[in-house]
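Weekly sync, protein design subgroup
Attendees: M.S., D.O., the rotation student, P.L. (late)

Item 1: inverse folding check
M.S. brought a backbone from last month's batch and wanted to see whether the design step gives back something sensible before we order anything. D.O. pointed out we never logged the input encoding, so this time it goes straight into the notes. Structure tokens as presented (833 positions):
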């Protein structure tokens, strides 16, 4: 098939200008003839089933048995039923159940083992007790491809030990604008480094092609993602548009793909993003013309999470265009059933040609055969799975992760040679990152956004504090933990650990590079300690470079620790001297992303230019450097105003420029400037009460005596676009307390989208079932509102609570989130046409 160049400026593709490649595996005649034989026996239903991947939150083994689905995935928030924090045996049992279903032909079809995929992006990060490696932006700083290879190998072993043989990694993105919240998933802004690492990590995960190790029982299928341009989107917007030339797309953003293919990568995931306005999931020229035909990729091209639904003319349940563009398997987490039915009809009608279907299924079967799935048997029977307790989080695995932490630390400043620290002194360890393993790990850690966790969720892991304390104690010194910096004994030196809180897709996008604008808590602590004459070492936990010139000035030494993962002791290894006074480990890390001079310097030091950075790509001091860093400019280049995206109501008050409005049963509206307040007809009353601080919550009382509905709502200063969040399973979360509602309560919670536009869900019954008088974080999936008719791309009232029955509740905050104590149900969306 030759692909004609696409019409229109900036979207024309010239496959012949892309690197020519081929699979490192010569066609295996035995496998290819086995595929042909199997294909000849498969019905159209069997074939279409192979081309669909459903999420374990929305699909059961019975569904797999019935629909002959080729694959399932566990998304970031999808766990074995009833197991929010799964251990190896629970993943094994689930994987076994799906495997059994796929091999059971009692309801027809052929026995074809199902592929089970998961995001193991910094170690096997959905498994409790696993080894968690530094996130990729940290690994970039190590400049150590062999280490990257070994991390891939260990990740593969821990996956296999839990009965899973496919990861959605590595991310080969080359982020150019780190306002993008997924920047930490990328190794570097430098395509050369990404290309070098691509081969290394694929080799570690899959083993070397042509050797017996390749895809053996200790290795897994790797996925190069997200093809292509995910790190090049305009303004760093997640799922946005990469407005770059074909040359830049090829030389910068695609740099990792040819080496990954050469190293034998078996799956490529297509990006959510667009290239010059064309959604990648519908781009025939790039998928079929470049990736498959020119670069010789012979494995599976996988779609991203309902990304096909964004192709013009498509929905999540229907997208012939994506298959026709060359995608072989679509990730249809909650939409698989509709997609199955529609795709089947389209194949039967010839809208998707049978030759295309056969190509897709051939590739899927090829990967399954290369992995030896037809012979391997139960996932739990794998040799590593059988001894999972020894394999997962084992001492050698953790030692590797700890080495990766040491190698990734980047020293930006070390005035007065405050580092290395003599461990025989009295050392204060402060900051909210000091003893916070969740914060060390960031997103894609046990939960999708990495939120809602405590240290207890990380058995076997070590916080930064625990590592420091152990070594200081062993050396005969003393260490004191005081998160807020208020020490008991005046320290000889303070180590302040602070930085970004966990986030993942779209939740992490920023308008500029200011660190925590409007909240100077960490800066104040650094200044206060220094003001007391204590030498201060700042340890910054972050997924990406941010503008922290004020914090750098306020500290004597400044260490970027990135998101180091589960082995926090790697930080003590480098910051402290050995007990005998030697320097055991020097700094090794060099910036793999340039560091910005102001909060608006984007992109910085990127291929596209952007002016002189504060610290250039490749910067990183060692203990051999004895210079002094002079004071840096404290001009952020932008007003440091607070206001967090996705937070609508906080500590009992509307977010900046939002308004609280009451609508009485008689339709009259009242803007609430101060509390208490009420509608003139008395149908709804709002007052103040205490949640964690004085008057940091609001009570709402519906009198229920009037004949109509009264509403409280939050009005946004400008319409909000939460379409992506809706697609991504984000919740509207409110911390609330039900004091009195009747079993027949008529409450609805919804959102508004302009005059006459809204979507709301009945919640009265579920609210009345909640424990009364108890504060709870209650979430409602955004897709409930979409399914109830709201236009999620222009929300002007992100929260509306209506009722005509009497009741009393209290709320303290309303925001977008992904973790809740209770998630309310809405009418099911999985079965919609
Ligand atoms: C992300 C992918 C991920 C997939 C499955 C998507 O939203 O973009 O990187 O592999 O979800 O969790
Ligand atoms: C899933 C993630 C997925 C995201 C899509 C979440 O619910 O858990 O794996 O990437 O939705 O945006």
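Designed sequence read out in the meeting:
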């Amino acid at each position: 098939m030759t692909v004609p160049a696409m019409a229109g400026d900036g979207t024309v593709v010239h496959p012949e200008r892309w690197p020519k490649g081929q699979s490192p595996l010569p066609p295996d005649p035995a496998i290819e003839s086995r595929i042909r034989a199997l294909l000849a026996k498969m019905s159209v239903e069997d074939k279409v089933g192979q081309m669909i991947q459903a999420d374990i939150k929305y699909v059961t083994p019975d569904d797999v048995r019935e629909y002959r689905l080729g694959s399932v995935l566990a998304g970031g928030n999808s766990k074995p039923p009833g197991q929010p924090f799964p251990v190896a045996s629970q993943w094994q049992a689930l994987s076994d159940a799906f495997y059994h279903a796929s091999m059971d032909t009692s309801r027809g079809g052929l026995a074809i083992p199902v592929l089970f995929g998961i995001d193991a992006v910094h170690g096997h990060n959905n498994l409790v007790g696993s080894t968690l490696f530094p996130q990729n932006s940290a690994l970039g700083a190590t400049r150590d491809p062999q280490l990257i290879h070994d991390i891939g190998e260990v990740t593969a072993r821990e996956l296999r030990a839990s009965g899973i043989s496919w990861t959605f990694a590595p991310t080969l993105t080359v982020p150019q604008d780190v306002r993008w919240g997924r920047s930490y998933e990328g190794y570097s802004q430098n395509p050369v480094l990404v290309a070098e690492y691509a081969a290394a990590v694929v080799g570690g995960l899959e083993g070397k092609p042509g050797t017996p190790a390749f895809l053996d029982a200790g290795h897994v299928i790797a996925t190069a993602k997200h093809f292509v341009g995910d790190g090049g989107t305009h303004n760093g917007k997640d799922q946005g548009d990469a407005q770059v030339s074909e040359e830049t797309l090829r030389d910068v953003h695609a740099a990792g793909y040819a080496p990954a293919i050469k190293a034998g990568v078996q799956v490529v995931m297509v990006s959510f993003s667009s290239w010059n306005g064309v959604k990648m999931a519908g781009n025939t020229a790039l998928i079929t013309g470049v990736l498959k035909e020119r670069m010789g990729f012979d494995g599976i091209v996988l779609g991203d999470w309902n990304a096909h639904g964004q192709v013009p003319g498509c929905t999540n349940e229907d997208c012939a265009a994506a298959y026709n563009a060359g995608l072989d398997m679509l990730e249809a987490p909650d939409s698989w059933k509709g997609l199955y039915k529609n795709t089947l009809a389209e194949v039967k009608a010839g809208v998707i040609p049978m030759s295309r279907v056969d190509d897709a299924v051939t590739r899927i079967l090829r990967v399954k055969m290369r992995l030896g799935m037809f012979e391997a048997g139960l996932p739990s029977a794998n040799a590593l799975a059988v001894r999972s307790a020894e394999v997962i989080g084992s001492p050698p695995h953790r030692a590797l992760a700890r080495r990766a932490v040491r190698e990734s630390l980047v020293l930006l400043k070390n005035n007065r040679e405050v580092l290395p620290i003599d461990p025989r002194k009295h050392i204060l360890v402060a900051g909210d990152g000091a003893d916070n393993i969740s914060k060390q790990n960031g997103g894609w850690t046990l939960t999708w956004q990495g939120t809602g966790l405590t240290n207890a969720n990380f058995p076997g892991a070590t916080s930064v504090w625990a590592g420091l304390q152990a070594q200081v104690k062993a050396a005969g010194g003393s260490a004191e933990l005081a998160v807020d910096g208020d020490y008991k004994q005046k320290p000889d030196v303070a180590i302040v650990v602070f930085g970004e809180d966990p986030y993942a897709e779209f939740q992490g996008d920023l308008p500029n590079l200011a660190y925590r604008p409007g909240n100077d808590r960490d800066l104040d602590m650094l200044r206060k300690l220094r003001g007391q004459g204590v030498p201060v070492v700042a340890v910054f936990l972050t997924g990406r470079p941010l503008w922290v010139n004020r914090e750098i000035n306020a500290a004597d030494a400044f260490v970027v620790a990135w998101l180091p993962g589960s082995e926090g002791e790697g930080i003590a290894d480098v910051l402290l001297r050995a007990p005998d006074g030697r320097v055991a480990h020097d700094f090794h890390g060099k910036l793999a992303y340039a560091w910005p001079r102001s909060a608006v310097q984007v992109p910085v030091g990127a291929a596209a230019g952007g002016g002189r950075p504060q610290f250039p790509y490749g910067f990183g001091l060692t203990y051999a450097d004895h210079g002094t860093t002079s004071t840096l400019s404290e001009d952020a280049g932008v007003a440091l105003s607070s206001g967090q995206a996705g937070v609508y109501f906080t500590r009992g008050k509307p977010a900046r420029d939002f308004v609280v409005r009451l609508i009485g049963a008689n339709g009259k509206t009242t803007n609430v400037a101060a509390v208490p307040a009420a509608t003139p007809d008395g149908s709804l009353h709002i007052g103040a009460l205490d949640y964690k601080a004085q008057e940091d919550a609001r009570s709402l009382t519906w009198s229920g005596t009037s004949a109509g509905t009264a509403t409280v709502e939050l009005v946004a200063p400008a319409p909000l676009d939460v379409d992506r969040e809706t697609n991504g399973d984000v919740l509207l979360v409110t911390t609330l307390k039900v004091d009195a509602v009747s079993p027949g309560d008529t409450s609805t919670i919804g959102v508004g989208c302009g005059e006459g536009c809204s979507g709301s869900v009945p919640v009265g019954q579920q609210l009345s079932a909640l424990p009364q008088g108890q504060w709870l974080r209650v979430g409602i999936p955004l897709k409930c509102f979409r399914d109830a008719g709201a236009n999620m791309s222009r929300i002007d009232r992100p929260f509306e609570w209506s009722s005509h029955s009497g009741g009393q509740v209290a709320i303290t905050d309303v925001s977008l989130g992904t973790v809740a104590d209770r998630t309310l149900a809405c009418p099911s969306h999985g079965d919609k046409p």
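Discussion: The chain has three domains: 25-391, 409-450+458-608, 647-823. The two ends are 32 Å apart (CA to CA).
Action: P.L. to compare against the previous round before Friday.
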